[in-house]
Design a protein that fits this description.
single chain; eight-stranded antiparallel sheet; six-stranded mixed sheet; binds magnesium ion; binds guanosine-5'-diphosphate; Alpha-Beta Plaits; Elongation Factor Tu (Ef-tu), domain 3; alpha+beta; GTP-binding; 35% strand; nucleotide-binding; membrane; 599 residues; 5 domains; GTPase activity; 33 strands
Length: 599
């Protein structure tokens, strides 16, 4: 039996993880030059376009050492975004080691550090690697020092490579063998296989990616998912190369896939333990969690006839994205739609883009918000209520207390940007915790922040006020009391539920004024005057007016030129498609996201 090494790559986005992975695959012959397609691990269109790895994947390589010994390498790819931290933790658990890859010109970033700490917590062997040494701007000495400070290794232990030129890759492969311990191989115990990823296939059901921790799985055996107690048969099992390679058994230490006509990803969840029905394990592998959405938004079809299409699209998306949740809701303004829950803002954007791209459905989304815990009086009793839709926040008089989620944010930045970052965090109701000076003029600033203040445009603001240099990482802390109110928007006296938002009382006036101003810009003039008001409960706090106008788009056409006239009319129709009638007022889609586009 050849030895096995299971490892992953920890790197900040753009530090070259995918490129380096491609080189490893090439050198071990896992892919031929002909099959070589840049960045083979990012296999969804969307991922490739955005240059991010959303789902984790795994690939088996046959490494031949310089002495001719053959070793099996399993490279487990992990998602690179803070929204997917749980999936990252499960992928790490499937490994005995991690390559810590740092860009020679960029240095260590916050996201890398949190994943690195998770890996260290899970006792993974860390192999430090400086990548992109070919870059003219490479600062190998400075970055080495950062890595030494971070993990306490020796300067000489840091490998130097270029994923682009292939420099240092052979030494890196040998280091993976030498430094990372092999997995336990207790193949006679009851089966415990960790699910570190699963994808949905229309024809075959869920395809589950596993790392066998103990025991052996044979083809055809009865299997059980321990968290959901669902049972199936392991109809097909195998290894993951570029293609799936069938096999008869998977043993302790190995990585592979299992197919068993599993009807839904809900049954085969990341982090769950797979065992056999005949000789089941007593305890699952620890650490399983149900994923919990953090950010919510309404999703409505622009054309209400598309409601059923939207429902079936969401159903299909959920089949291969177990962390997406949704339920039907109705809005007076927008009609029938759904309230969807996401892991974070990136996840939300991905879902919206897929609805548009893969299902071609025009949707209106409402401003994202977090989930609040509201204590309200009902018949002189305090009742707890979870609110994930601003329009469901009770009126001010009825609310006893509102609790909102807080996060702990860690921001790493060159020290010249400390000022702007602290201003931003202060403005977002942050509590300063501390700052830690690191090597090379970098500082790690820690703040506690209301999550609601971060889901808006915090990340963009952070990037723009630091010329892109600062990086952000956060984790959920707890629910805390907040003086929060529901801010309503009224058009000609009618409240538009889809435009309500929840805000801190101190910010309500400013927000109300700005929202009215922005809506005045976004809502086109109508045939009658439109009053825009912002209100807290029955108290109006801001007001703007859109004057009436008789709209006649063909007026410019001086008669005669029919085709030009038609074009204009068609263009207006196009524009209309993305409008929604709210009462008698036509409101464009952008208006529902107005809060996001304010400075
Ligand atoms: P990932 O986001 O960590 O997967 O990073 P990618 O592998 O997608 O690389 C990000 C960018 O850096 C791409 O434009 C790559 O072409 C470039 N890149 C990756 N490795 C190297 C390297 O060793 N040298 C240079 N000069 N560029 C690299
Ligand atoms: Mg990548």
């Amino acid at each position: 039996m050849p030895e096995i090494r299971n490892f992953c790559i920890i790197a900040h986005i753009d530090h070259g993880k995918s490129t380096l992975a491609d080189r490893l695959l090439e050198r071990t012959g896992a892919i031929t030059e002909r099959e070589m397609q840049e960045q083979i691990l990012d296999d969804m269109d969307l991922e490739r376009e955005r240059g991010i790895t959303i789902k984790s994947h795994a690939i088996k390589m046959d490494y031949e050492r310089p002495n001719g010994e053959k070793v099996i390498f399993n490279l487990i790819d992990t998602p690179g975004h803070v929204d997917f931290a749980y999936e990252v933790s499960r992928a790490l658990k499937a490994c005995e080691g991690a390559l810590l890859v740092v860009d020679a010109a960029q240095g260590v970033e916050a996201q890398t550090i949190s994943t690195l700490y998770q890996a260290i917590d899970q006792d993974l062997e860390i192999v430090p690697v400086i990548n992109k040494i070919d870059l003219p701007g490479a600062d190998i000495e400075g970055v080495s020092q950062q890595i030494v400070d971070l993990i306490g290794c020796d300067h000489k232990d840091i490998l130097q490579v270029s994923g682009k030129t292939g420099d240092g890759v052979d030494l890196l492969l040998e280091a993976v063998y030498e430094l990372i311990p092999g997995p336990g191989r207790e193949k006679d115990k009851p089966l415990k296989a960790l699910i570190f990823d699963s994808i949905f296939n229309t024809y075959r059901g869920s395809i589950v990616y596993v790392r066998v921790m103990e025991g052996t799985l044979h083809k055809g055996e009865g299997i059980r998912f321990m968290a959901t107690d669902k049972e199936y048969d392991a109809e097909e099992i195998g290894y993951l190369k570029l293609e799936k390679m069938k096999t008869d058994k998977l043993e302790a230490g190995e990585v592979g896939y299992v197919i068993g006509s599993v009807k839904s990803l809900q049954d085969a969840r990341v982090g769950d333990t797979l065992t056999t029905t005949k000789n089941p394990a007593k305890e699952p592998i620890p650490g399983y969690q149900e994923v919990k959405p953090m950010v919510f938004s309404g999703i409505y079809p622009t054309d209400s006839d598309d409601f059923e299409d939207l429902r079936s699209a969401l159903e299909k998306l959920q089949l291969n994205d177990a962390s997406l949740s949704y339920q039907p809701e109705t809005s007076k303004a927008l009609g029938f739609g759904f309230r969807a829950g996401f892991l974070g803002l990136l996840h939300m954007e991905i879902v919206q883009e897929r609805l548009d791209r893969e299902f071609d459905i025009d949707i209106i989304t409402t401003v994202p918000n977090v989930e609040y815990e509201v204590h309200k009086m009902e018949k002189s009793e305090v009742v707890k209520k979870i609110v994930d839709n601003p329009s469901e926040m009770p009126d001010p008089g009825k609310v006893e207390q509102v609790y909102e989620p807080y996060i702990k944010a860690s921001i790493i930045t060159p020290s010249e940007y400390i000022g702007p970052i602290m201003n931003l965090c202060q403005e977002r109701r942050g509590n300063y915790i501390n700052q830690l000076h690191m090597q090379s003029n970098r500082v790690e600033i820690t703040y506690e922040l209301p999550m609601a203040e971060v889901v808006f445009d915090f990340y963009d603001r952070l990037k723009s006020s630091t010329r892109g240099y600062a990086s952000l990482d956060y984790e959920f802390l707890e629910y805390r009391k907040g003086d929060l109110v529901r801010l309503d928007i009224l058009l000609n006296g009618d409240p538009v539920d889809a435009l309500s938002s929840i805000t801190h009382r101190d910010k309500a006036y400013d927000l109300g004024r700005k929202l009215c101003g922005k809506l005045k810009e976004l809502i086109p003039q109508q045939q009658f005057e439109v009053a825009i008001q912002a209100a807290i409960g029955s108290r109006v706090i801001a007001r703007d007016t859109i004057r009436a106008m008789r709209k006649d788009v063909t007026a410019k056409c001086y008669g005669g030129d029919i085709s030009r006239k038609r074009k204009l009319l068609e263009k207006q129709k196009e524009g209309k498609k993305r409008m929604k009638n709210v009462g008698s007022v036509e409101v464009p889609q952008e208006a529902f996201l107005a809060v996001l586009s304010m400075d």
